[in-house]
Amino acid sequence: MQLRDAIAPCGNSDVRRVGLMGGTFDPIHYGHLVTAEVVRAKFSLDLVIFVPAGIPPHKRGIKISSGTDRYMMTVLATVTNPHFEVSRTELDRPGPSYAIDTVRHFRKEFGTETEIFFITGADAAVEILTWKDAKDLLKECGFIVATRPGCSTGELERRLQEARLHSAHCICVVEVPALAISSTDIRRRVGQGEPIRYLLPQNVENYIHKRGLYR
Ligand code: ATP
Ligand code: MG
Q1: Residue 14 C-alpha to ligand 1 middle, in angstroms?
Q2: Residue 31's Cα: distance from chain center in Å?
Q3: Which residue, by CA, sits nearest to atom 21 of ligand 1?
Q4: What integer pLDDT is reported at residue 8 of this predicted model?
Q5: 121 lines ligand 1 (CB under 6 A)
Q6: What domains sit in the chain, N to C, each tagged with a CATH number?
Q7: What is the pLDDT of residues 174-192, one digit of tens each?
Q8: What is the per-residue DSSP string for 16-71?
Q9: Ligand 2 centroid vs 121 CA: distance in angstroms?
Q10: 64 in ligand 1 pocket by Cβ < 6 Å?
Q11: Which residues does the chain have with pLDDT short of 50?
Q12: Nearest protein Cα to ligand 1, atom 2
């Protein structure tokens, strides 16, 4: 099935448009940054807010770096882009980090005059209907789904078709330059002494080595 690369149904160009990029960011890498930048430009977003998860509900039982380290790496990676910001909202909220709570937090902060889009990779988006209060979430904001190497587009389109039945907003798929980079692979590389240069910003690599992460 052909991927939909749609922008037209995604709202009014006069209002402020904000993207929320959720993730564990352990560590943040160029896959995340390219995705955010491509989506920002394509959807004329005024701002992309990176939201490192406090306790990712889908990664329970998996050891992750401290919120402070993940926040610091996300700030370091985004500092040179004037359209990027980092939020501590999920890190500072007790309990599992659910997208519905995060979107409502920003809705309250920005008011109804701002369009909010949740940005997610294809692997996360196929699970969307299993997220907490998924049907309410789909009514709260638009979803922009980035292609990711290794993710089947047929399965993605089937799941998104189902999600669209519950959505009052756009659910768009955007093709981003394929970067087969994952945080899991970066952690493994550091553990095995393999290079991670050019997979993520140099200042994030420096931070990883300085803090002795993933050894
Ligand atoms: P991990 O391997 O630990 O799961 P990850 O590389 O998948 O890490 P996450 O923090 O889980 O990174 O991802 C945050 C968001 O970014 C998710 O929506 C994910 O789908 C998306 N994403 C991550 N890497 C890429 C990539 N290379 N291309 C497109 N989207 C990506
Ligand atoms: Mg992931």
Answers
A1: 31
A2: 10
A3: 121
A4: 40
A5: yes
A6: 14-211 (3.40.50.620)
A7: 999 999 999 999 999 999 9
A8: EEEEEEEE--TT--HHHHHHHHHHHHHTT-SEEEEEE-SS-GGGTTS----HHHHH
A9: 8
A10: no
A11: 1-9
A12: 184
Q: Residue 136 corresponds to which amino acid?
A: D
93-120 pLDDT, tens digit per residue, is: 999 999 999 999 999 999 999 999 999 9
Q: Is 56 in the pocket of ligand 1 (CB under 6 A)?
A: no
Asked if residue 28 has its Cβ within 6 Å of ligand 1, the reply is: no
Give the C-alpha distances (Å, rounded to integers) separating 111 from 16, 75, 77, 141, 147. 10, 25, 28, 13, 30
Task: Evaluate: CB of 123 within 6 angstroms of ligand 1.
Answer: yes
Length of the chain: 215
